[in-house]
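Hey, resending since the last one bounced:
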Amino acid sequence: MTRPWAILVILVGTTLASAQDWNQFRGDDAKTGVSSAMITPPFKQKWVAPIGLVNSSPSIVKGTVYVGSYDGHLYAVAADTGKVRWKRMFGKPVYASPTVVDGRVYVCCNGEQGVREKDKQQTCRMVCLEAADGKTVWDQPLIRADVTYDLGNWAGGWASPAVDGRHVYVGSDDRYIYALDRATGDVKWKYLTEGRVHAAQTLVDGVLYSGCHDGHAYALDAASGKLKWKFKTDSLVNSTVAFRDGQVYFGSYDKHVYALKATDGELSWKTETDPGVTSHIVASPAVAEDAVFIGTWPGMMYAFERKTGKVRWRTPLGGRIQASSTVANGVVFTLAHNRLVGLDVNTGKIVWEQRVGNAFATSTPTLALGALYVGSREGLHCFVP
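The structure tokens again:
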């Protein structure tokens, strides 16, 4: 069934990802999580690539899927067959999603070759590879094993980068947001926050937006790294900021979803989720023409009116939600524990679901090339109508 709402998004949306490519986490520089892929469930599994536990979210460019694995590799997989074209070893799990631009892959990862095993968890690198064969163009350490950071066992590279004509922008567990020279990897500027930065960087009109574990959402000048504004929530912000029509949207561990004016960070609205329940929001929002979609840790999927923050619907999915959502052709897709679920954007009714693997997974569904790609403990899955 063709949905009028979906057609409206295709015609008037200004930040939609291409149906052919999905080159980064959330699909575009504005991180909206909206795809123009005109496919509708039900789906069947076409293939699964057994490449280890995949919590990274797939990026797809020119028929190749790029995705990280807990086995320590970044993989390039043929989108039509699931065959591995190349893989690159980094020594520790690759959590972050890669960004693919102009024939090169940019990924934030853990581990350094030659570093003692017990120290590898406390390293973080930003790496540029050739998309064709995985060969290194440059490799820039952000957190070094010879420097002591009070970061704990989960330190490393979580954030997905944004890329423009000059710079690669990425957040790190050392509390900095970095701008690196795109050609060489040299640090051009860095901005010190008060917490870890796991959120992907959102880049629109020369402004960089980022969530941070210090509880703030930041807006920085992309050219200089100077602060334009910051907005304080009541808990950490792991959610990646999404931009649409002069507003930015994100979730916080304080259980609220926020909408701010992109120009000055003024609050437009905030709405509480899961009232009366111990909860938080890890996921990033998908922001469509008239609604914002996001899941909460206890497993409730929400749709909010984009202009007002009013709850349009909420649907319990019966499993924890850490994965972000993706909207395509009138359906919003997410992972709840180990179930891939599609919900009608207007009603919240579940229209399709499929178990992927036997354990909790956090990979965000990617819809491109007439298929849906998602990771699980079993590897990388491809579903087709």
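DSSP finds one helix and 33 strands in the chain.

Sorry for the duplicate.
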